[in-house]
Amino acid sequence: MNIDNLTNDLIQIVKDVLEVAQLQAGNTFVLGCSTSEVVGGMIGKNSSQEVGELIVSTLKEYLDQHQINLAVQGCEHLNRALVVERAYAMQADLDEVFVVPALNAGGAASVAAFKYFRDPVVVEHIVAQAGLDIGDTAIGMHVKHVQVPVRPSIKKLGSAHVTALRTRPKFIGGPRAQYAN
Q1: HEC sequence for 14-72
Q2: Could you tell me which SUPFAM superfamilies the record lists for this protein (predicted)?
Q3: Pick the CATH number of 3-169 from 3.40.50.10360, 3.40.50.1780, 3.30.420.40, 3.40.50.1370
């Protein structure tokens, strides 16, 4: 696995998602990531702290430049709770839960978020405007309705399948309603 290729592919994937999602400063982007899948293993069985740190630090640096909040989803052993910055949790009135992610209970990306965030806390739920799912980790529960798939130009990060979501307002009003583009 080539680290430079991984970094470049991740940045291109995120650019693709942000272009389609049209996020604004203050919006939230959720990351679900199986480093096991990235390195060619089975989800939850081959975690790589090095890969988790690379993905989270790269993504955080890129999103910080756009003033977009990053939320890093943990694995099923933490009920997919998320690591966020305390300032964001307070601003969004999110309830903090008492846990610190570990490699085998939260996953490498959550552990990396705890390392790279200024003042990390874990929360149970968020409502993000877009997100990236690396390795089929099921981020949909944390993305605002109505969810629309985003098809990035790069379909894999390492060996992991990549999908993404954005949101749009609900269409309401029936057959006589009109909608702006």
Answers
A1: HHHHHHHHCCCCCCEEEEEECHHHHCCCCCCCCCCHHHHHHHHHHHHHHHHHCCCEEEE
A2: TTHA0583/YokD-like
A3: 3.40.50.10360
